[in-house]
Amino acid sequence: MNAPRHLFRIQCIGCVSRFLGTPVQRVILTGGAHLQTPGSHYSNGQFLRPFHCSAVCSTSRPNQTEFEKAVEHQMQHKDKTLVTHDDLFERAARDSKTKADFNRVVDVFNKADIRRRGHVEFIYAALKKMPEFGVERDITVYNKLLDVFPKEVFVPQNFIQRMFNHYPRQQECGVQLLEQMENYGIMPNVETKVLLAQIFGEKSHPMRKYQRIMYWFPKFKHANPFPIPHVLPSDPVELARFSLTRIADGLDAKVTVYQYPSTDITETGEEVTHPHIIGIQSPDQRSLLAKHNPCRPVYVEGPFPLWLRKTCVHYFLLRADPIPPEEKVEEDFDPEMIGPEQSLFYPQRVELDLERDFGDDESFYVDDVEEGAVYAMCMAGQGDQATLSQWISGLQETCPILGQIPTVFRLESGPRELQTSSDAQQTPEQEVEIDQIIEEDPQRTQGVNQ
Amino acid sequence: MAVSRRAFYGVIHRQPLLFQSTLKCSAILSTRSIYERDYRRPGQPPDTRWPWQKIHFDFSKGVEGIKNHIGLLKDEFVQRWTGPEGRPLLEHMLEQTRVQWEFRGPESLDQWVVSSDQEIGGHSVAYIKLGKNNTTCFLYGTLCSTPPRDGETRYSGYCTLRSKQPLASFDRKKHYDWSSFNTLHMRIRGDGRPWMIPFSKFFLSSRGRIQDNQHVLWLDKVKSIGFTLGDKADGPFQLEIDFIGLCNDLAHTEEFAYELYKRNPEV
User: According to its UniProt record, where is this protein located (chain A) (predicted)?
Assistant: First the structure.
């Protein structure tokens, strides 16, 4: 009355039915019923043991945690594997979701069955749960998941197996795992390669995928000349400083902190929060603003979005309309720079581009789009007019002409969810007077640029 | 079909943009030609109509079409006497820069097609309009990378601006011939700088997957140019383009940035 004999019987009946056609259907049904009786008998008594499962794994270990026991119980009474594995992770995630918890679930699965039954479903479920546990950017976790695959079982043994897709579901699963690594920008390491070679062999699809990643990732790693770090500064002031220097990429541009974020309690007991205001202005912009015609207004516009990977910050501009052609002043060059008394061999002003030849033409036959000058940029904790007029009054200290120029606020009510959480965690020593202005050189304080 | 859908992609990054404005016009159009089958979403029944059942006969449209095509045919014959592509030979030979697309009016937007993952069932939206003073093309919308719930599609979230392929008379396809240039020159709203991408940096990819067999871009067979956003950062986006030109950067001598001498991965 053992199970393999029943399996054999079913196969025999199947063969017979293929030869004889319909009349045997009833016989199969009875055969199936005959098979089911011992199974149900088993499930009444102890556990339902799968066919190829060795007896070793079913012996209960003495020092098992409650979670592991529950998992093992579940593994043995599974009916739909994918659901069970999802459950497995949810059970582990009930109290905390960390890398250790994730690793514990994988360990439990590895220990539960020496044959690693249902490992493909388990890996798919684990891949889906990775962002939840916060381990989606961790190469060691990916390697640990790859380690779940049984070794040397799926390696093709001869050329026919190699020619046809050997164990396609498992290979697909391996490719899927590597694809998730690729999507999160994780570069595989040597351990991944060794594992893949052990599991799938040298010329399998996952191995190919690994080779492709290893070829293309280093090529595109430094494709962006202005990289953004994965972890952005949590301090809104630091974040604003980083973003502003990123937009206005001039070496001499000065970042000015007009106001640090702070919370004051007034005499009546109300809490007044001062949002942070950080601006940037280069000397060129400053001199342009000094030359601005005071009859014409300047505009404060915004908020405009700036994306730093998955974070969106907003900034504001101080700009003017383009100067009409009748008001344009042709600026002469300094006669000292181009006069005849200049040395022929060491001229102070050279109009040559040494990378270009004389015949090279770099100009395009296209109408130039005239746009007004941008005088300054800022990022603020709140996008209302009161905050931005503080910025303008701060700008007046360096550009007194701004007091005579009418300023028009053209603000749009855009999405304003800007660094909400970090405002609360300000320490008291960061509280600074409103009009205190601290000037810094952005390039030297920019530790964030990689 | 796979070959015709292949595209070369350059490496462009999402750049900070400065301004916004208010005009609006455009809709989502299909980007496929009649010979390529449309993308069939999982769960949709296949189109079983015969080819003649898809023809909509319209007399006025026919007259319009004949006028249009005869005009194009006449141009083809007459322009040949002036020089290649209707320009004098000297101009053609000495040309170092060319403005291929510029946005200076509503009719310039007709050469472009906007599409997003709505055609595969996603939720991103993309629109195109003329920017401030009608001198720029303003692409804006919202990216949403939630995949459609059809059980098969795993990834979603893209928005694309793509130029239409030029057509000669009687809907014959033409190609741009850019073989005398080596760099794409674009003026995009970022920080006002032009963005130049050498053609040597373009790589071959098909349906979003980089191909193993790479090849130098065939500059005399360029069908269209496209900008695709798919960086999985959900939220609004905008891109403003002033013009797209070509130039011959003699300081750039690289032919192809990726290896050609062996297949990747090696077989």
Answer: Cytoplasm; Mitochondrion; Nucleus
